[in-house]
Design goal:
41% helix; Rossmann fold; single chain; 2 domains; six-stranded mixed beta sheet; four-stranded parallel beta sheet; 13 strands; Hypothetical Protein Tm841, Chain: A,domain 3; 11 helices
Amino acid sequence: MRDYVLMTDSCCDLTDYMARELELEVLPLTMHMDGQDYPNDLAGTAISNEEFYKRIRAGKLATTSAVNVGQFQDAMRRVLQSGKDIVCVCFSSALSTTYQSAVIAADDLRSEFPEADIHVVDSLSASLGQGLLLYLAAQQKKAGLTAAELAKWVEENRLSICHWFTVDDLNYLKMGGRVSATTALVGTMLSIKPIMHTSDEGKLVPVSKARGRKAAINALLDKIEALAIRPEEQTMFICHADCELDARAVAQRIKDRFGTKTVYINYIGPVIGSHTGPNTMGIFFVGTQR
């Protein structure tokens, strides 16, 4: 059995340290602000998470772009030239063209490396939902699954990764076309916080509304109660858009309420944060359904 590399992109929002511990090959999407391009590597080399949110809070606007075919070809070719195969797990195809770029790159390289095994899987996930899927996949890799077996495992288990989050400022969703201008205006006036999740199709979908931040966070915790499989045995993830103290408080509530031993916390990176705005928070866990 040939060795293989687990490849992904920076919208997994894992820490650089964890990605290295999991032996992931991570390709950056790009954030654009004030005419500058900022590759979104997990180490924050081009721009730190703290600096990004400082600028966003000051009123700066950002756009984003996917990993392109050439980037995937270069990264995949390096791996294949070393004699290893590839399992590439990408940011949801409903939210980015990154997955399509990886598919095209893999197709182009198969004739150049006919002996290689290249699998590209749509995670149908985002942020630390994608990160949690990769965290679990890396454990399966260490347990001895082949490249083909791991790709199949990811496809079979991706819809068990629950993504539940709340957005603090509806105006960012308005700019991204997620809600109407009227909804954003009324919601802001009434302090309405949408409760959203990532659907089976990998889309961001509003599910319900809460009046105020406290009620929104309570609604997220209630989703663990309703959907989580043996929460006391799980490792859960929390992402936040520059509201770490809130995230730590939520992590403690998860531990107290459900007996969960390990909850990892990290920033929503600049690419996804460009579309959600500051103070967004999400929780990710394994459940009976999304």
